[in-house]
Automatic annotation (TrEMBL):
Protein name: Serine/threonine protein kinase
Protein kinase domain boundaries: 42-308
Keyword terms of this UniProt record: ATP-binding, Kinase, Nucleotide-binding, Serine/threonine-protein kinase, Transferase
Record-linked SMART domains: S_TKc (SM00220)
Record-linked InterPro entries: Kinase-like_dom_sf, Prot_kinase_dom, Protein_kinase_ATP_BS, Ser/Thr_kinase_AS
PANTHER family attached to this UniProt entry: MITOGEN-ACTIVATED PROTEIN KINASE KINASE KINASE 20-RELATED, SERINE_THREONINE-PROTEIN KINASE NEKL-3
GO molecular function: protein serine/threonine kinase activity
Species for this entry: Halopseudomonas salina
Coiled-coil stretches: none
Sequence positions that bind ATP: 77
Amino acid sequence: MIESAQQPSSVLTRLADSPQHRVANEKTHRVCELPELLCKRYKIERLLGVGGMGAVYRARDLLREQYGDPDPYIAIKTLNEEFAEYPDASALLYTEFALTSRLRHGNVIRLHAFDIDPASQRAFFTMEELKGPTLDQLLEQHPDGLPWLEFRSVALPLLEALTCAHEMGVLHGDLKPSNVMLARDGLRLFDFGLGQPLKGLLNSLPRLSRKRIAAWTPRYAALELLNGEPLTTVSDIYGMACILYELSSGIHPYSRLTAKQAKAMEQDKTLQKPAKLPAHCWPALRTALAFDKENREIDAQRLLDAFTAPRPSLLRRICSRRPG
Ligand SMILES: Nc1ncnc2c1ncn2[C@@H]1O[C@H](COP(=O)(O)OP(=O)(O)O)[C@@H](O)[C@H]1O
Ligand SMILES: [Mg+2]
């Protein structure tokens, strides 16, 4: 299983500076090359980031530039070498494109177009270029977690994005801090590369086996996914709950263990409310962190409601602490 990992920025800068825009996957160190010009239109400028499956580049759209667009810059996602070699690599990337572009929400990445470069046969899609830290970078700056109001300003749009995705029948499949960015004009959820449509929807899209594409991060994966069961909305809820807990406390709820390991150690019995999290949000977050999907009885909208609800007044909080 490949654990999706963010490249340290020094490595990124080094790679981005290389003339052939080389990308190395941290684990495999395999290098692949992307042509400098795709579809005679997109001029690759530099690497923006790499994950377990893909690489994202900044590019200049020469067509936009030709028409005097003041901002001709876009981002391009393509698969890294390991995945680009799959016979159905373009279908893999197309599924991500098709699922994401269905979601019209201010907190979901906006995609432009899917294409295949005729010369190199590389599949790619274009999207808005985001500028800002990913949530794992934000967490590095806040090792003790975010204060309540700051936490809320991240949690609410993130939960709105997931609520929209689930309402539109799209499962994300790989929720983790490095797949969320705090862009200058607001939060964006991205990387639906392991996403799937809800059962019965979008049946004509290629169905890719999650087992074959083991590029997800185990510590954010719900127990049922680790056990090879299908992805559902409550599997996404587990990943989301881990992100929210980590944002509030600075630490992973289960000491960075997988749900399987943490369950074996009965870590749910000692799970503590993050100190900065108001008590009225805790029951919902704790439910979302349940190991067994049968006990994870909460959806994204109800989680959102719990964090949106105003904090009870001081008087009510004092009264609710009194016995009897
Ligand atoms: N639209 C974008 N603008 C800027 N950077 C991006 C964009 N999309 C992705 N990135 C960067 O590239 C990294 C890898 O992208 P991602 O879609 O998560 O690929 P993977 O499927 O391999 O995990 C992200 O963590 C982020 O740092
Ligand atoms: Mg990713």
